[in-house]
Every structure is written in structure tokens, then in C-alpha cells.
Design a protein that fits this description.
Largest sheet: 4 strands, antiparallel
Low-confidence stretches: 165-171, 175-181
Shape: elongated
Biased composition (Basic and acidic residues): 118-131
Strand content: 5-15%
Number of strands: 6
Structural class: alpha+beta
Region (Disordered): 118-143
Order of helices and strands: HHEEEHHEHHEEHHH
Length: 238
């Protein structure tokens, strides 16, 4: 038994009610109730698993007997175990939820039903959220694509579709094997024709000052003759 340590555990029911169920399987550092700085590791209290601590105290006293040394008092052995450095192999642990649940899950001295409960709690609280975050990082969202519709083609139906290489014949207008010519060229050709028309009609506005504003062919035409048949005015009826 660990009489020295057990006698120095907190008995505040309001404080104990805020702890998780797994804390009942651990001893707090004896100096914790006295606000001893040695009781903390960082901002967490040092704890020992109860069956592990009791087994360790008994092993230390047995080792003294086997070596022919005076058997140390239980309280002295307990204080020695609490004062072990953080670099020691078998020592106390920091009272974090993850550390305590993992210890209870893997401890051979803990009853099987407690080990199973700790395994399920650790899976639910720590492992499952980490897996979900890992999946989210492994599948980054694609670039934002604005949906549009052109001649019955809905882009939203192909945003998540796999990209494939298209042969040249797919873009050949008038080809019997063309899958996209009707949609693409019906959209591109009117825009191209309109762009050429606008540039030609506004040519005198953007051409260099060193060139005549009107071409020779246009200067020979009567002023009432329009160069664009589509814009010719209908002659008046007499």
C-alpha cells in the first residue's frame, strides 16, 4: 500500500466532481494539496497509476532486501518515486487526458473493463477527430469554379468530373464525331465576328495620325454610299 501518498489526496467533493472518471485510478502528487511547485510538471500535476505505484513501492523494498541493504521505509520509497526526473524510464506521468487514457488502456495491472473503457474514450475523444482532420487535409478543396450555362450546357454537372484528353477531332466543327463543336463554336464564332466588325468600323479612331483616315477605295466612293451593306439606308420612295 501507499499510505503516505493516499493520506495526502484531496477530499474536496466539489473539486473531485469536475474530474473525469479516469482520475480515480491515479494518485496525485502528495504536494498538490499544499500547492508545492514540485507537484507540477508544466501546468499539470504529476500522477501515478495506483496499481503501478503500489507495485513499484513493493519492488523497491524487495530489491533492498535482495541486495542485503536495510529495507527503506514505505514513505521514503514513495517520496523517491515522486522525485524521479522527467527523463527516467518508469516514472510518473503528466495529468493530461490523453496520457492517462493511454496508460489505462495499455496497463497490464488495470482490470480489463477499465482498459476497454479507456480504449473507447481515447478513440472517441482523440483518435477519431485526428483521423477526420487528416482526411480533410489529404483532400484539399479544388479551385473555385463559377457555374455557367451556354446553349443548354450546364458546367455544374462537370465540375467534379475527371479531366480527360480530348482528340483534335472533338473540336473539329462539322465533324460527325464532334461532341463539343456545336456548343463551343456556336458561342465563339459570333463573338469573333462581332469583334472583327467593331475593330473594322472604328479603324479611323485608333490608326496612326501619319496614315490617312480614309482609304483610297473609300475616298473614291460617293459620300452617300455606305461601305457596309448591312447598314445601307433604304432609298426613299417618291
Amino acid at each position: 500500500m501507499a499510505a503516505y501518498t493516499e493520506a495526502r489526496q484531496t477530499t474536496n467533493s466539489a473539486f473531485l466532481s469536475r474530474r473525469g472518471w479516469y482520475r480515480t485510478h491515479f494518485y496525485d502528487h502528495p504536494g498538490y494539496i499544499e500547492n508545492d511547485a514540485k507537484a507540477l510538471y508544466g501546468d499539470k500535476v504529476k500522477v501515478w497509476c495506483k496499481p503501478c505505484f503500489q507495485r513499484r513501492v513493493a519492488n523497491e523494498q524487495r530489491e533492498d532486501s535482495l541486495l542485503g541493504l536495510p529495507v527503506r521505509d514505505t514513505a521514503l520509497v514513495e517520496r523517491t518515486l515522486w522525485d524521479l526526473p522527467s527523463t527516467a524510464a518508469n516514472r510518473w506521468i503528466s495529468a493530461t487526458t490523453a496520457a492517462m487514457l493511454v496508460h489505462l488502456r495499455d496497463c497490464s495491472l488495470t482490470p480489463d473493463h477499465i482498459r476497454q473503457q479507456a480504449r473507447e474514450e481515447h478513440e472517441r475523444v482523440h483518435l477519431s477527430p485526428r483521423r477526420e482532420k487528416g482526411k480533410a487535409r489529404a483532400q484539399p478543396p479544388g479551385p473555385a469554379v463559377r457555374a455557367f450555362s451556354c446553349n443548354g450546357y450546364d458546367s455544374t454537372s462537370s465540375i467534379n468530373a475527371p479531366v480527360r484528353s480530348l482528340p483534335y477531332s472533338d473540336f473539329n466543327p462539322g465533324s460527325s464525331t464532334s461532341r463539343y463543336s456545336d456548343n463551343i463554336f456556336s458561342f465563339i464564332l459570333p463573338i469573333s465576328a462581332a469583334s472583327v466588325y467593331v475593330l473594322y468600323a472604328t479603324k479611323p479612331l485608333w490608326q496612326s495620325k501619319s496614315k490617312p483616315v480614309l482609304s483610297l477605295q473609300a475616298s473614291r466612293e460617293p459620300p452617300h454610299v455606305c461601305r457596309f451593306p448591312c447598314l445601307k439606308a433604304t432609298p426613299p420612295h417618291h
